[in-house]
Amino acid sequence: MKKTFSKTLLTALLCSLCFSPLAGAKVKLKSIIQKNMVDDPILDEAQANIAMAQSQTKVSEAGHCLW
What confidence score (pLDDT) does residue 20 get? Predict the structure, then answer.
């Protein structure tokens, strides 16, 4: 009887965890992090710096091939 009670209790606890507010909080946290990664001004600045460096590289390469 004790094993049956333990299995029943364990099953009930596992089911309650699946439907707990923490499961919803995990999804919300993930979406918040994803949104902040997209809207982060530091990332925008880094992408602008990369684009500027690529442009400067092309200008430098063009200047060396003038023969």
Answer: 66
> Is there a domain that residue 19 lies in?
no
As for how many domains the chain has, the answer is 1
pTM over 0.90: no
- Tokens standing for residue 4: 């049956």
The range of the structural domain enclosing residue 63 comes to 25-67
3-state secondary structure the chain: CHHHHHHHHHHHHHHHHHCCHHHHHHHHHHHHHHHHHHHCHHHHHHHHHHHHHHHHHHHHHHHHCCC
